[in-house]
Every structure is written in structure tokens, then in C-alpha cells.
Amino acid sequence: MLISNLFVRQKTPAPRFAPVLFLALLILFAIIGQTRPAIGLAGLGTTAIITAVLVEVNRKRIWETYRKNYRRQKGFKGALTGPNRIYYSINVRILWPFILFLGVVCLWAAYSLS
Question: What is the mean pLDDT of residues 40-67?
């Protein structure tokens, strides 16, 4: 290994496990919530809050990556699957803040149950 390789900055890969991890945690805490509701609600709330905050913080990078990948996409390209600024605005300004609110409600409900 050359010393000059230490100063070359490598591009960090995008996390590909995040959507699967999000869904797995939701399913896991929903199952746990069947037997222990306070723990399930606390887990669901925490997962929802962390995910909503991460999406809101990285919204510009997510939008640019989606637009770039859509151009390279093969197969079905339609009006509903294309990058549309209106859908992006609805997603960022309404959907993810609502998920954040639901996470806070889940945490409040878990606190009330315990």
C-alpha cells in the first residue's frame, strides 16, 4: 500500500440496508407490542421518530439521488413514478412530519401505559 493512497478520499457508499431495517424494526416492535404493549409502543415511537428525522435531514440528498437514478432506470416510466416536485413536497412537508407526530404519540402512550 502506498502512502499516497492514505490521502485519496474514497466515496462512501449509500446505505442500502436502511429501508429493510426500518421495516424489520416496525414488524419486530409490532409483534412485541402484542405481548408487552408499553415496550412495543416505545419501540415503534422511537423507530418512527428516528426515521422521520433522518429523512427530513437528508431530504435534499434523497431527492437528488432519486432524480439521478430515475434517468438510468429501465422499464416502466410513467407520470406517477417520475420525479415530481409536488409529490416530493407532500412527502417532506406532510407525510414525514406526521410520522414524527405519530412517533411522539406512541411514546406518550407507552409512558401512559407504564
Answer: 90
